[in-house]
TrEMBL record:
The keyword Manganese does not apply. This is Ig-like domain-containing protein. Residues 1-20 form the signal peptide. It comes from Acrobeloides nanus. Keywords: Membrane, Signal, Transmembrane, Transmembrane helix. Residues 157-176 are annotated as: Disordered.
Length: 176
């Protein structure tokens, strides 16, 4: 009997083969994970021979420019590249570049990384550091003044010394 993990593996492999049939076998597939709100650029051809781009929405954008830039649906197209000026989380999917000789290059964005929130991180680390420093200072003060071991301290009893006068032989006490 075939186990469940084996069946799942076979199904995944079959789906991968079906997906591979849809794409040209000679066309590479590139994966990217851009950061939200960043600018991102797909370079498709150095020869400036891009004929069209197919967007994840299915829209086809023909690129017939002479060293210029065309803007469509928030994207910037040239004869060699596609630029996303401000990446958003809904821009995931496959971007297909079709060259004039019908060669296709596939660019895939599986997900968009959220923009890092450095301000929150800095405030959190400063707050934790301040709390930790305050606790350390309190522990040190309590230990220093409340749980002090006086057994190692010198005895504070008065010291008796003899004072010599030329005329008398009396003892006097000096308190330190």
């Amino acid at each position: 009997m075939i186990s469940l993990p084996t069946i799942c593996f076979i199904i995944v492999v079959a789906l991968l083969f079906i997906a591979a049939e849809e794409m040209d076998k000679s066309s590479p597939l590139y994966y990217f994970t851009p950061i939200e709100d960043s600018t991102f650029k797909f370079d498709c051809s150095e020869a400036n021979d891009v004929d069209e781009w197919i967007l994840p929405s299915g829209s086809q954008v023909s690129v017939h420019l002479e060293n210029g830039t065309e803007q469509v649906e928030g994207f910037e197209f040239t004869q060699s590249s596609l630029t996303i000026p401000s990446v958003k989380t809904n821009m995931v999917g496959r971007y297909t570049c079709v060259l004039r000789n019908n060669t296709k290059h596939y660019f895939y964005i599986p997900y968009v990384l959220p923009k890092p929130q450095y301000k929150n991180s800095i405030l959190l680390s400063l707050g934790v550091s301040a709390i930790f420093s305050t606790i350390c200072a309190i522990v040190w003060l309590v230990e220093r003044y409340c749980f002090r071991d006086d057994s190692n301290m010198p005895d504070r009893t008065p010291i008796t010394r003899k004072k010599y006068d030329s005329g008398s032989d009396t003892n006097s006490t000096i308190h330190v």
